[in-house]
Amino acid sequence: LRFIWSDSFQTGHNLIDKQHKELFNRANIFFETTENIPDEEQYIETLNFLVSYVKEHFKTEEDLMKECNYPLLAGHKKEHEELVKKLVTTYKELIKGGFNESIIESTNALVQEWYVSHINMHDKKMAEFIKNN
Ligand SMILES: [Fe+2]
Ligand SMILES: [Fe+2]
User: Residue 37 Cα, ligand 2 centroid: separation in angstroms?
Assistant: First the structure.
């Protein structure tokens, strides 16, 4: 399981694109870990590595949206909050119940959801607005 960056994910905003690439990178590091020797500590560490960057990235976008009075800020922010909430739930599950296949599945689904729909539906629109305002 690997997330491969392609130009179709490009929003045209340099910083945002750079951060999206790093998010793919960190998601891949997590999935790579799950393919190797089971090591609970490593799973927790790499998932935390991913989640902390997701939070940082969302903060960057929200700051950019505020700066230009983006009219769709509230809805976009809500999407972020929901994604973080789901990721944190997965993270807590991992800490409490240990690693299992459903953790990979739900993390995969989350990154896919974020990757396919969030970038395409929300981030591109936001980047376009920033460029013109
Ligand atoms: Fe976003
Ligand atoms: Fe984003």
Answer: 31
Give dist(CA 88, CA 61) in Å, integer: 19
Q: Which ligand is in closest contact with the Cα of 16?
A: 2
Q: What is the pLDDT of residues 113-129, one digit of tens each?
A: 777 789 999 999 999 99
Rounded (5°) CA angle 17-107-86? 90
* CA–CA distance, 75 with 16 (Å, rounded to integer): 18
Alpha helices in the chain (DSSP H): 14-35, 40-67, 73-97, 101-112, 124-132
Q: 111 C-alpha to center of ligand 2: Å?
A: 11
Distance 17 CA to ligand 2 centre (A): 8
